[in-house]
Design the sequence.
């Protein structure tokens, strides 16, 4: 993904466009390690913003951060049968250390349930030791046959929350509470509308009793699972012996949850908002919200003290309203500066040249609409803040409208097949809910999966299962997805 000038239009190739946007914005590049990417400074800054904003919510809800080893003994993974079977094809295993063969091979962390829960067993003795509510920001390794930057890579970054509770009700509430935290973050900060729902049995996290997710629609109509929250019940606590005592001689296994969001969310930001000019970042997550473009015209001399005084005033205006910014004082032509910051997705560009300084004003340019507005210097802060809020709202509204337009209600398999032949949609339909019915979802079309059972009311209730014609137990969403 070397830096380039041309971005493939979405109409010519959506996958190529996605890669071009990443390269042009200098978010990531390929590494010499198969399946792994280098997250470049711009990409790191974006992930750091995700970390900063969501970590505040994690802590506000009573969770504390921890760091566990990245290497996990294989024997720990094998304690929970469903868990190890689910991850076995994706594991990266270390069999030798310092030239010596290991009796118990070490696995590069695919997720941290097992190593954390072996530790939980040492820390929980009585009910007063509960709840445990922890979170870890770390890297993860899972083998992927087909990789795509940010969406599917051998190594990626995420946060994983893990909790242990005395009662089932507390654990179930934790699962739903964190699902809503993800939704508030993705919708409110990333401007991506999403649908919270429960996964069918075949899509559950390995070892979970129930998995919930938020599903988002990308511009091409495909779905992207943006975050998950799992109810683990007592499966892991029984496997690892995590129990608390109460009363006289009585004990109970704890009830557990885990939940996570990864760098896949950067892929969601790109595919939800960007255009054929490059990256578009929602202002609330953008590491830099404005680029000050200083025009240095050798033909038009401006007193250096006057120019610096003007720039200081611009900075004070932006600082006063909390707008983050960068100054581009290079001697490049304005057109080149515009293009460079545009493809990096900076929400606002502020043009400052000899004319603007002479008239005591600046030009504001919004990234999403390219709308230009001349603003008096004294009103820059308020105008910039308003423009950013309007852009945030406009991005969310556009994504909501896309979700509405690319959703269909179908009642039969034939209708569903016809819909997916026409394009990519979120298809709402009825489902009887059996294992056989879940296996039959593939009949709906190549790559179509059952994304979730929505927790909220669907556009229209479908009474019968699209596969069998039997009474529908659930309303579900079918879609092609990343």
Sequence:
């Amino acid at each position: 993904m070397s830096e380039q000038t041309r971005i493939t239009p979405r109409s010519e190739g959506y996958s190529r466009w996605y890669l071009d946007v990443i390269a042009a914005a200098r978010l990531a590049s390929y590494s010499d390690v198969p399946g792994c990417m280098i997250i470049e400074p711009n990409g790191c800054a974006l992930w750091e913003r995700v970390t900063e904003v969501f970590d505040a919510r994690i802590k506000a809800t009573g969770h504390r951060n921890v760091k566990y080893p990245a290497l996990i003994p294989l024997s720990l993974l094998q304690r929970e049968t469903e868990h190890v079977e689910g991850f076995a094809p994706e594991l990266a295993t270390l069999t030798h250390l310092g030239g010596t063969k290991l009796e118990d091979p070490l696995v590069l962390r695919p997720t941290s349930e097992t190593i954390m829960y072996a530790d939980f067993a040492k820390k929980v003795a009585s009910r007063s030791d509960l709840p445990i509510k922890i979170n870890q920001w770390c890297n993860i390794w899972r083998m992927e046959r087909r990789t795509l930057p940010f969406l599917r890579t051998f190594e990626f970054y995420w946060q994983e929350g893990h909790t242990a509770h005395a009662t089932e009700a507390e654990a179930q509430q934790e699962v739903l509470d964190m699902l809503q935290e993800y939704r508030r973050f993705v919708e409110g900060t990333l401007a991506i509308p999403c649908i919270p729902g429960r996964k069918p049995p075949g899509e559950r996290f390995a070892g979970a009793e129930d998995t919930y997710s938020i599903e988002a629609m990308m511009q091409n109509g495909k779905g992207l699972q943006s975050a998950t929250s799992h109810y683990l019940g007592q499966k892991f606590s029984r496997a690892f012996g995590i129990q608390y005592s109460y009363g006289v001689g009585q004990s109970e296994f704890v009830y557990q949850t885990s939940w996570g969001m990864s760098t896949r969310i950067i892929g969601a930001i790109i595919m939800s908002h960007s255009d054929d000019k490059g990256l578009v970042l929602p202002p609330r997550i953008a590491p830099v919200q404005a680029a000050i473009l200083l025009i240095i015209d050798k033909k038009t001399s401006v007193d250096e003290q006057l120019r610096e005084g003007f720039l200081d005033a611009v900075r004070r205006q932006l600082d006063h309203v909390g707008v983050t910014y960068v100054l581009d004082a290079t001697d490049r032509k304005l057109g080149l500066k515009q293009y460079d910051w545009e493809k990096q997705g900076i929400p606002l560009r502020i043009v400052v040249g000899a004319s603007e300084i002479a008239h005591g004003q600046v030009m504001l340019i919004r990234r999403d609409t390219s709308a230009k507005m001349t603003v008096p210097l004294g009103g820059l802060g308020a105008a910039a803040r308003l423009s950013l809020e309007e852009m945030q709202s406009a991005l969310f509204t556009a994504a909501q409208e896309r979700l509405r337009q690319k959703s269909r209600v179908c009642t039969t398999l034939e209708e569903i097949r016809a819909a997916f032949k026409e394009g990519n949609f979120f298809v709402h339909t009825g489902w009887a809910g059996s294992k056989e019915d879940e296996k039959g979802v593939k009949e709906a079309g190549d790559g179509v999966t059952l994304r979730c059972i929505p927790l909220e009311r669907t556009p229209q209730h479908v009474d019968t299962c699209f596969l069998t014609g039997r009474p529908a137990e659930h309303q579900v969403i079918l879609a092609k997805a990343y």
Observations:
- Residues 380-405 form the longest helix (26 residues).
- The chain has three domains: 63-273, 290-402, 407-480.
- The chain has a mean pLDDT of 95.
